[in-house]
Every structure is written in structure tokens, then in C-alpha cells.
Amino acid sequence: MPGMQNDLDTGLPFMKMHGLGNDFVVVDARAQDWRINPALAQAIADRHFGVGFDQLALIGNGDGDVHLTFYNADGSTSAACGNATRCIARYLMDETGKTELHLTTDRGKLLAKDVGAGQTAVNMGQPQLDWQDIPLAEAMDTLELPIEGAPTATGMGNPHCTFFVPDAEAIPLVEFGARYEHHPLYPERTNVQVAQVVGPDHIRMRVWERGVGVTLASGSSSCATAVAAVRRGLTGRSVRIDLDGGSLMVDWRDDGVWMTGPTMTVFSGRFTAEFLDSIR
């Protein structure tokens, strides 16, 4: 297959992980230079003919402990994936005995920590608040976009569009998310969140992920929503965000946006040569 350097006669090893139901296929390419191309990512993402995932993550060697590369279910790439970063950090901590890791992504350098009780925290860096960094198509105030509902735009290494609504459950998310993912103000498409402020430290949020669709959770979306809520004076800087798959804690500190929650490694396996040959 184009883009795969290794002889795959023995198959491609992988792990399945999730953070609050936000699920990932993870390929460890530190020892062998496995490569992923869009066609392979799409085939693996198929929940009937492949394994299924919200994102695929490739672990490679880098300037820090490892470098992470992320793929969406449609084969496109993303610079950031908070829950996958936490899952992989937990895997590496269990492997090495370390309680702190320095990871690199296309988003930049990220610090991950074991904070006890099975919880893993990652610093997703400072949010991108200027229109050109998110990016948007033209210069504008990112606090309230000229879109019905006046959503807030935020960058977390990937673009986000957060709508604050009275009742997050009442939004028909499949139609709503698909419509705004491709809004012309977002030249690279966008993740879409509908967020209901429950209290000064509590948000109920649902998410449509760019290139994926509705997901049970999203780390970068949670960070973007927390930042947007602070900017609009709706919450404090530390909030619990309840997603369809569970809860994350997000804390916007001076050194970046920290996200904390549980992770799970579900199983490991190997894609067969037959499966891989079917994609060639």
C-alpha cells in the first residue's frame, strides 16, 4: 500500500482506547516506521468493515518522549486530540513508570501528568483567540461571530465553534453540527459544540467533531468550550464539563488549558494482511 514502508505480511499491530467513549485506534510506530495514509485511516475507521474510531493516533519518536499524529475518521488530519493524548500518556506512563511526560504534536509541546486515582491530565496549551490563528476566513471579533446564535470561535490546535444554548439536549445535533462544520467563516471546517451553562463551574456540552460527526466526548472541544465560557463571563476558569460519555475537568491556568479525566485501553490486536491487501 502506498504510504506503508513495512512489509505487512504479518499484519499491522494496534490498540483500541477511549476517553469517555471518545474512541481511538492507536498505532505505536516507535520501533517500526509504520505509516498511515488517508485510505487506510478511512478503512480502519469503518465500524462495520474495519474497527471504528473517532480518531486514529500514530505514536512516533520525537523531540519529547514521543510525537503524536492524529487522523479523523474521514482520513483528514488534526493537529490536536486531547482525549487521545491523555489515553496515550496513560499507556506510556504505565509502560515506563513515569508520572510526567512531554509529548509533541502538530499543536506543539504538551505536558501530561498522572494526577492519581486513575486520572490523567494534559496541558493543551494556550487557546488561539485571534481570527487568523483559529483560522477564520476574515478579520472579526471571535467572541461573538456573525452567525445566528452568536457562537464563539476558539482554536485549540484545531478550530471550534461554540454555541451557548438554554438546553443542549434539545438541539438536533446531527443536522446542526453538519450545517455549521462547513460554514464559510471556517475555511478548514470546524468542530461544533452546543453548551448549556448549568452553574458557574458546571457545563453540559454535546459535540459534533469535524471529519467525524457526533461523538460521546471531545477533549479539545471541552477545552474550547471552557475558554469560550470564561471569555463570555458565564463561568469561572475551572469547570466540570458533562459530555454524553462522562465528565472532564477543564482548568484554564496561566500556563495553558489543563484537561483531566479517566482513560481506558480496551484491547490490542493486529490488522491482518488480508485486510490491508484489500485497501491496496
Describe the structure.
By secondary structure, the chain is an alpha+beta fold. The chain has two domains: 12-124 and 263-277, Diaminopimelate Epimerase, Chain A, domain 1 (Roll); 152-254, Diaminopimelate Epimerase, Chain A, domain 1 (Roll), CATH 3.10.310. Helices cover 18% and strands 39% of the residues. A hairpin with a 2-residue loop joins β14 and β15 (246-253).
SSE arrangement:
Blueprint: E1 12-19, E2 22-28, H1 38-45, E3 55-60, E4 66-72, E5 77-78, H2 82-96, E6 100-105, E7 108-116, E8 119-123, E9 152-155, E10 159-164, H3 173-181, E11 191-199, E12 202-209, E13 213-215, H4 219-231, E14 238-243, E15 246-253, E16 256-262, E17 264-271, H5 273-277
Parallel strand pairs: 2-3, 4-6, 10-11, 12-14
Antiparallel strand pairs: 1-2, 1-17, 3-4, 4-5, 6-7, 7-8, 8-16, 9-10, 11-12, 12-13, 14-15, 15-16
Summarize the structure.
This protein is α+β, with helices and mostly antiparallel strands and 280 residues long.
Global geometry = globular
CATH topology heading of the largest domain? Diaminopimelate Epimerase, Chain A, domain 1
The CATH class assignment of the largest domain is Alpha Beta
Per DSSP, the total helix count is 5
- Give the biggest sheet: 17 strands, mixed
User: What structural category arises from helix and sheet content?
Assistant: alpha+beta
How are helices and strands ordered from N to C?
A: EEHEEEHEEEEEHEEEHEEEEH
Strand content: 35-45%
Question: Unreliable stretches, pLDDT < 50, 5 or more residues?
Answer: 1-7
Q: Distance N terminus to C terminus?
A: 5 Å
Q: Tell me the count of domains.
A: 2
Using the CA coordinates, give the radius of gyration.
18 Å
At CATH's second level, what is the architecture of the largest domain? Roll
CATH superfamily (homologous) name of the largest domain: Diaminopimelate Epimerase, Chain A, domain 1
Residues in helix, %: 10-25%
Q: How many strands?
A: 17
Overall mean confidence score, pLDDT: 94
